[in-house]
Design brief:
The chain is mainly alpha-helical and 224 residues long. The protein has ten helices and no strands.
Length: 224
């Protein structure tokens, strides 16, 4: 599980860095539409990049905190770091939550204010899970303020799982792209499906991990 989390965090970081390198020059020099490539498949990728290029500031507001979210997430769940460096855990946890709130709110703005490649289906998935993501973060913060450590841990796992889902969605989209000649599906058809699959898989994994690693009730009572 740890290997999978770190691998997905690396993917999420790479996606954010790639997007930043694309939109930062646009912020500095302004948006200029590029000519569509002659290759149909390359044109589909270019259309995706062009969508974010038209909203560079909003894109940066979303992905810059995403970099910190991906970097700090695995560290938040390390029992060794938490035990040996509790003050660092608390400080980085506050940064993690703030970044998550910015990510969640900007995701809602993007879902409602930007045209979605996958249309209504994609917008519905991103809106629903952005709301759940924000709810999970707020619940986690509420429980830690009330020293309910196990409930805090459970809701942080759910929040991080939903945030990390964007890294799983990318390979799923890649599979759809690779099989599009056989399936006949276009990005408008499969982007929404990919988002639903990624988010749901991560929520299932989060609940399974919570169930598998929850301490006995007696241990929770001692902590409280």
């Amino acid at each position: 599980m740890w290997a999978a989390v770190i691998f997905l965090s690396v993917i999420g970081t790479a996606v954010a860095v790639r997007r930043m390198t694309h939109v930062l020059p646009i912020v500095a020099k302004g948006y200029r539409p590029l000519a569509a490539p002659a290759n149909p498949r390359a044109a589909q990728f270019a259309a995706s990049d062009d969508l974010f290029a038209r909203y560079p500031i909003l894109t940066l507001i979303h992905i810059v905190p995403g970099l910190l979210f991906m970097a700090l997430g695995p560290l938040q769940f390390s029992a060794t770091i938490r035990a040996r460096h509790l003050q660092w855990h608390r400080f980085s946890g506050r940064i993690f939550v703030i970044c998550g709130l910015v990510i969640g709110v900007s995701a809602l703005v993007m879902s409602l204010g930007m045209p979605a490649i996958g249309g209504v289906n994609q917008a519905a998935a991103t809106t629903l899970f952005a709301i759940f993501f924000l709810f999970a973060l707020c619940k986690a913060f509420w429980h830690i303020r009330h020293r309910e450590f196990e409930l805090h841990r459970e809701w942080m796992i759910r929040a991080f799982a939903v945030g990390l889902a964007v890294a799983t969605i990318r390979p799923i989209i890649g599979v759809f792209f690779a099989t599009s000649r056989l399936s006949g599906l276009t990005p408008h058809d499969f982007f929404g499906i990919a988002f639903w699959i990624g988010f749901v898989l991560h929520l299932i994994a989060a609940e399974a991990w919570i169930h598998a690693t929850s301490p006995p009730a007696a241990a929770v009572a001692v902590q409280q």
